[in-house]
TrEMBL record:
UniProt name for this protein: Flavohemoprotein
EC top class, as a word: oxidoreductase
Source superkingdom: Bacteria
Catalytically driven reaction(s): 2 nitric oxide + NADPH + 2 O2 = 2 nitrate + NADP(+) + H(+); 2 nitric oxide + NADH + 2 O2 = 2 nitrate + NAD(+) + H(+)
Cofactor section: FAD; heme b
Organism: Echinicola strongylocentroti
Protein family membership: In the C-terminal section; belongs to the flavoprotein pyridine nucleotide cytochrome reductase family.
Classification via Pfam families: FAD_binding_6 (PF00970), Globin (PF00042), NAD_binding_1 (PF00175)
Length: 403
């Protein structure tokens, strides 16, 4: 642990960081990529363009400043970052580079406020945090290497099948190109894919949820086509250009959005492509005796993926409920397992198995905000909520809740 003087100085900078944090992280990323353009290969540059990544980093830095003397309060945040870093093969030698440009960004943005004492304290604090991450990530890498089919970093995987699931979602089936065993994974986890797209100045890396349970036969990713640029660059390439037999670089399954070890009933709430991490959870709970309800929200039947796959699952403890926000005239609304309109408090209250239920949810940002508000309204405790969301969790309550 660092000394008390450093702790006091870093904690004292938290209010300033709240005012200037995003400006600091924007400058940081600009300088980082200017001097080390090869690092673009590891980042989702769409999140840079939209400002999401600078915002996430700023919130993380602020939390660290506030709790540098209570790191146990940051355990969940640290674990999420460790999983993300290990999926991308972040290495120890990258941390000094990041530290250099982060401190320079602090100095640039804060000017005279960034005294030598403050910069010295933050350099020490950064080293402490870097060593924390390096240690935890090395543990993940070693664990991965010892798993059947496991490896460190990225490995070549070959596309063996493509299946259209809906108008917008296509499933991609992969196996290791060297015929080694399929890496196992937990329901809800994701993998990183790196693509060398012709005409692009850097490799594009994205994380996609694994949309099927671990089966030893393949890894399945189900990708939604994003029509807007630059967000759609990778998804469009996967839909239109990646062919059976082609190879991609893929990381080990990662992520801690997984089922808790308990016997509580489960409510799964999916918005659009947010079904991808939740479907494996739904499948893995078959035959366990745990009451499980899956609410799947989508505009209509043309955008509803996996409907035949889910219908084929038979378990008296499982219930699949569909919500069509803009149904076709041919879509049958029976009011029991299919409802029309957006998700409401009364719908969740009707289908949540019990007051002790765990709730897992995933989907677009506005959908996540809506679900968060509805769970607040019916009093689902925070400890019973689990979700996958790129961005500061605080954002799920800071904007108007709408779907």
């Amino acid at each position: 642990m660092t000394n008390q003087k450093t702790i006091d100085i870093v904690k004292s900078t938290a209010p300033v960081l709240k005012s200037h944090g995003e400006q600091i992280t924007r400058v940081f990323y600009e300088e980082l990529f200017k001097h080390h353009p090869e690092l673009k290969n590891m980042f989702n540059m769409t999140h840079q363009a939209t400002g999401n990544q600078p915002k996430v980093l700023a919130m993380t830095i602020i939390k660290y400043a506030e709790h540098i003397d209570q790191l146990d309060m940051l355990t969940d945040t640290v674990n999420v970052i460790v999983q993300k870093h290990s999926s991308l093969d972040v290495r120890p030698e990258m941390y000094p580079i990041v530290g250099k440009y982060l401190l320079e960004a602090i100095k640039t943005v804060l000017g005279d406020m960034a005294t030598a004492e403050i910069l010295g304290a933050w350099e020490e604090a950064y080293q402490l945090l870097a060593q924390l991450f390096i240690g935890k990530e090395e543990k993940v890498y070693q664990d991965n290497e010892h798993k059947p089919g496991g490896f460190r970093g990225f490995a070549d995987f070959q596309l063996i099948n493509k299946v259209k699931e809906s108008e917008t979602i296509t499933s991609l089936y992969f196996k290791p190109a060297n015929d080694t065993p399929i890496p196992s994974h937990l329901p809800g986890q994701y993998v990183a894919i790196s693509l060398d797209i012709p005409g692009e100045d850097h490799i594009h890396t994205r994380n996609y949820s694994l949309s099927d349970i671990s089966n030893g036969e393949h890894l399945r990713l189900s990708v939604k086509r994003e029509s807007c640029s630059p967000a759609g660059k990778v998804s469009n390439y996967l839909h239109d250009n990646l062919k059976v037999g082609d190879k991609v670089k893929m990381g080990m399954p990662s992520g801690d959005f997984v089922l808790q070890k308990s016997e509580h009933p489960v409510l799964l709430i999916a918005g659009g492509v947010g079904i991808t991490p939740l479907l494996p959870m739904y499948k893995s709970l078959l035959g366990t005796g745990r009451k499980t309800v899956l609410i799947q929200c989508t505009p209509n039947s043309t955008t509803l993926p996996f409907q035949h796959e889910i219908k084929a699952l038979d378990d008296p403890n499982h219930q699949h409920v569909i919500g069509f926000s803009n149904p076709l005239s041919s879509d049958i609304i029976d009011g029991t397992n299919v409802f029309e309109g957006f998700l409401t408090r009364s719908i969740i209250a009707e289908y949540i198995p019990s007051a002790e239920s765990e709730v897992y949810y995933c989907g677009p940002k506005k959908f996540m905000q809506l679900v968060t508000q509805l769970l607040d309204d019916i009093g689902v405790p925070e400890k019973s909520r689990f979700f996958e969301f790129f961005g500061p969790a605080d954002e799920l309550r800071t904007e108007e809740h709408a779907q």
